[in-house]
């Protein structure tokens, strides 16, 4: 890679446009970049890095590129960096413009232009540049691919920062590892470590999960086995847990089976004892039953002997009752005939009570003849009844005609009165409809004018408010503008004061024995002192912040003023110049008239409806009047017909009534007389028949009693028993017979008699013995069942635990293998004696290459005295692999690089930087680096060492390579003729190129 030309505009301290011709500087091989402190030497290198990668090195890259713009640049000048270089045989031109905040072209305020990037390539045959891309991402990928280095690698290899390598020289293993990791891209090895650690954690979690399930089963087995099982004192994930759990489970199963055998033997013995106790209990109960049965039979026989007399009397009474049963039908027949006779006599007496005196002594035949005569007279009154009903109907119809006539007269009178005022009513309703229609039309016209008037009134009020706001906004804008001018002037004054006293600020950081950041000297005989009123960096930055805030406030106030002006113009265009009070009065009057018109127009529908209902009412009343006239004519004819019919019916009824008040009354008298006569005749015949049947029954009863052996019918009736008494007496006789037979049977049983001769039985004692045996049997059965359940559950849990161990075995093997690899790559394994991580191992190889490459130049710079060697020894409790020592040829001893002096540290770090650049270049694919920069550190060297260092750097020019040295050392300006000077001024820095 060779740099040809660099153009800088408004970048860093450079307010204008500057150009660096690297082709001219590279002609001499070595060139010097120098200038005062703060002039912008490092900014030249930042511009090269920004052109290639779009960012600047380290902490200077903040704010997405917004801070790269020079504070000295003109407002209209945009920041731009253009670099022309040759890489991989291609001549390219990269142009970058960071984001730019500028004033708007129209209006007030600022806007931000996005960052821009261009990449062009020179076409030698055509002799012209051709565009390749304008995409940030594509250009970045293209540059990185061509250079073969990231930004961090480029800043370490091409822009050699001596301070960084001095720190690298003295750093510990962790710090060296971070730097080398960025340069050699060993992230893939760190990823391998992380991947193995993640796999170890994942496998460990799965193993722990399986062991936790195994321990859970073990706890459940311990609950089942009780004291017969002891759990291993191991945690999930520890080795040997599965084997210990399986051994404990086997012991628990053996103990459980032994307990089951003991429980089964106990159950067999308990069953034998229980069966013997039950047999003894049954024998005792049977003996007690037989002894009790014999004693009870003797007691029953004694009672039967005492009741023998009463039994004989019952047998005699049952014999008389059976004889009387042959007379019972005759007795029942005579009783029924007597009851019938008494009922018939009473009915005849009741029937004769209501008869007329002329028929009181008549017999059944006379009473029947009188009833026939009354019925014949009643049949002759049926025609008179129909006439009487018709006369009542005619009277009722005539009353209805009179009522209809009065109702029709009322209808005619009301219709005539209503129709007389119809014309006046119709005229009034039509007038209301026309008035409401006019009001509706007027409301529509006013509604068209109402909304524009309201908008004009609102605009007029807004116009009045904005007129007062405009003056206030104008005053605020003028005040903020003045404040912005004052704040910027104050900041510029403070900045000038700080630049005048910058030497004192730098001198405050000096330490005896440490090199100066400006000249590199380690002695400081007369450092500058701060004077009264010295302005430090914080004060300047606060003033700058205050100035920017004032400018932002000014822009905001200007924007608000413009907004108020635009709103006022819009409101004035809408409202015009008419005063607000006048517009309000006009709007109120228009609103009032619109409201009145809408209220009047709302009655239009009601008026239409009322007119329609009135016309319907007129038609209805005309129709009613016509129908009433027709009904009146029909009623006159009907009334005449009814009067003729009533006269004929009244003559017929006068003949039929006789002395009764009406035909119905006469008919009712005849119906009652015929009914009483008929009833009396039937009752007299029934009484005669009942007396004859009673006489016949007495004769048959006397004959039956004599035949049964009774002296009189009365004796037979006394001996007769009813059904309940007969059943009760027969039941007593049967019970006596059954009891005698049962007692004789019990006393005749041989077993019962033999049991009675034995001693009394004791079933309670046998019951207690049997209950105790049953309790022992239940306890033995429960113990056997519990032991069987325990064995079954332990077998199930053991099988599940064994299956879990079998499934977990491959996972445990994988975990052991991954854990060993992870510990080995992480440097924590006992097999890794030097505790070296995988990434550190790879970086150690790279560091060994760097030390070898640096030694070639270090021996030349130190006249063969020093050699850099790589060490993989451990330091303290840290890890090994990235140690760096220096071998002193004068003493023959190896010592730490921290023991080097300031000058020795410089050329050792310079050799290390050059060696690192060679190794990184080879790692990046062998891209040739034709331009290098070395930043600071030469002030710590004596003349001889400086000559040797310059000889080494001069040797880098071989094969057309150029080296740029960034330094304050005055002796270098004498030794190196090709120079690029950075000149500092109040309007910004500038570049001067000489000796090229």
Report on the structure:
The protein is an alpha+beta fold and 996 residues long. It has 26 helices and 17 strands. A 6-stranded antiparallel beta sheet has the order 2-1-4-5-8-9. Strands 10-14-15-3-16-17 form a 6-stranded mixed beta sheet, sandwiched between helices. It has a 3-stranded antiparallel beta sheet with strand order 11-12-13. Helix 6 (173-184) crosses helix 23, helix 12 (382-420) packs antiparallel against helix 17 (604-657) and helix 13 runs antiparallel to helix 15.
- Helix percentage range: 55-70%
Strand order of the largest sheet: 2-1-4-5-8-9
Distance between the termini: 20 Å
Oligomer: single chain
Major sheet summary line: 6 strands, antiparallel
The number of helical elements comes to 26
If you average the pLDDT, what whole number results? 77
Beta strands, count: 17
Structural class computed from helices and strand pairing: alpha+beta
- The unreliable regions are none
In what range is the share of β-strand residues? 5-15%
Q: Shape from CA axes?
A: flat
Measured on Cα atoms, how large is the radius of gyration?
71 Å
